[in-house]
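[agent] plan:
  1. take the single chain provided in the ticket
  2. run structure prediction with default settings
  3. attach structure tokens to the ticket
  4. add a short note for the reviewer (M.T.)
[agent] executing step 1
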Amino acid sequence: MSALWGVLTAVAAGLLVRQRPVRRWVVAALAAVTVPGVATAELVFTAYRDGMWVIHRQETSGAVPVPLQADLGGDGSAPALSPDGSRVAFEIAGQGILVCLVQRPAECRSVRLDDGSTVRPAWNPQSGELVFARYLADARGEDADLFATRDGLDRIVPLVSQTGNQDDPDVSPDGRLLAYSSAQTVALHRAGVEVVRHLWVMDLTSGVARLLVPGVHQDMHPDWSPDGKRLAFASDRSGQLEIWVVGADGEGLRQLTGGPGAKSWPAWSPDGRSLLFVKALEGRESLWVLKAEGGGASPLAPFGADSEVRVRDPDWR
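[agent] step 2 finished; step 3 output follows
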């Protein structure tokens, strides 16, 4: 056993596990998309085509999205662009996380541990290393902790281990703070037990973590604003999943979306003026964009306004 890299409020320990890099034939997905009122940005997303979720790219606004050109052998999800735009990390069902070069997309590496499933890749904007969740399931139940790569993806170290399942990591633009969700089972007065998800923020230097927004809700998918002053996230605190924003200090909590359909996976525009998110309505996922200060949301339809292609998991850098 090794000491945990960061000491949390909840006592924890983790194993330092080896990672075996491999090469796989995969095509990465990168997009430069222009949205009215928003500077040109790189965008990746996942679309459901021919019975499978596949990472896509769209080179310009209105262009036909380009799917992966290789058989990945499983559904793709949660794509994340590296800080310099040279690599894309994403999940492949049953295979863990792959990291592919944008200019040489056939060159990929696997990021995984010897046991469990590695999911939810997120880049540290300063170090260029990955943070991700590792899920373990056995007869006793399920557990998830956060890990980080070191030495250019060659080494994996434990990062966050506390009671419950840790997921949805996102590192602040200055590389100092890690936001993540933590699912825990809590006892409610006269209402039995319930699984809730809280947002936490950990100082990556000191290892001290703090609860960001208290309550008995489902708070998830945090995404740092480009200036590092706010977090967008999804929460059901108003009755269904909507997009909210809150200050990095936990102050200024505000709901941005409303109306039919659950909203999730917010992604800030590079200029910090807009937010992209996923809306799920009647079993279909689609991308929508709205101003960060609130107001009406508009659909962002990569496959055309009349398309019924389901789209989710945006990353906008």
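[agent] step 4 note for reviewer: Residues 1-40 have pLDDT under 50 and may be disordered.
[agent] ticket updated
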